[in-house]
Amino acid sequence: MYLRSYLNSDEVMTIIDSIVHSDFVQAMKDGTLEDDKFRYYLTQDHIYLKYYKEAGTTVGELSPKETVKQLYMEIGSEEPVFHTTMLERFNVNGNNIKDSDANYTTYSYINHLIRWSKDSDVNGMLSMFPCQWSYGYIAEAIPAPSEKFKFWFDFYHSQVYRSITDKYIEILGNVELSENQEQILRFGLEYELNYWYECYK
């Protein structure tokens, strides 16, 4: 099955629908999410992004394709800046965040990324794609979020962010996924879902 078809499959759409309707995302949408919960999310995101960047660097170095190398240069120039802005906005000192602050899902997810980034460029990209794709999907699925968290939805619905997702799909779109590759992508989406669950506790 090709990527676009797999993204529209029942098993993928069931997971992504659960993400969109998770308590954390819905509370962001309504503006009722407590600041402490968002700070906890930012802490986990800070740890995750460090290893996401590491995985992306590995994929870029491993791949012979200039399009892949360029993709991970673009990713490295946008989201980390936005993340730093969010840390400042919610008074979170990133320098105080340690790897040991990772919860079980974050710890497992970053090991998933690192494992597959060292395997091949395609498998590394498939492990990283669920984060990129699901965030954009969330932002597009919720067109009128609360003013409090509108900045979050605006970034992940921006043209710059969507262009990166489109490049992922353009690069991976002609790959006929094996069962193992479908599992890599599906596990990534399940990590995303559990990520939101963990951050709402």
Can I get a quick summary?
This protein is an all-alpha fold and 201 residues long. It has helices spanning 3-7, 10-20, 23-30, 35-62, 66-89, 104-117, 121-141, 150-156, 159-172, 179-200.
Give me the secondary-structure topology.
Layout: H1 3-7, H2 10-20, H3 23-30, H4 35-62, H5 66-89, H6 104-117, H7 121-141, H8 150-156, H9 159-172, H10 179-200
Helix pairs in contact: 2-10, 4-5, 4-6, 4-7, 5-9, 6-7, 6-10, 7-8, 7-9, 7-10
Report the portion of residues in β strands: under 5%
- Outline the low-pLDDT stretches: none
Number of domains: 1
Biggest sheet, in brief? Answer: none
Q: What is the name of the CATH superfamily? A: Heme oxygenase-like
From the N-terminal CA to the C-terminal CA, the straight-line distance is: 36 Å
By helix and strand content, what is the structural category? mainly alpha
Average pLDDT works out at: 95
Report the CATH C-level class.
Mainly Alpha
Number of helices: 10
- CATH fold name, please? Heme Oxygenase, Chain A
Which architecture per CATH? Answer: Up-down Bundle
Annotation, overall tally of beta strands: 0
Overall, the morphology is: globular
Order of H and E elements: HHHHHHHHHH
Helical content (DSSP H or I, runs of 4+)? over 70%
Over the alpha carbons, how many angstroms does the gyration radius reach? 16 Å
Which terms summarize this structure?
201 residues, mainly alpha, Heme Oxygenase, Chain A, globular
Would you give an account of this structure?
With 201 residues, the protein is an all-alpha fold. It has one domain (3-200): Up-down Bundle (Heme Oxygenase, Chain A). Helices cover 77% and strands 0% of the residues. The relative contact order is 0.19.
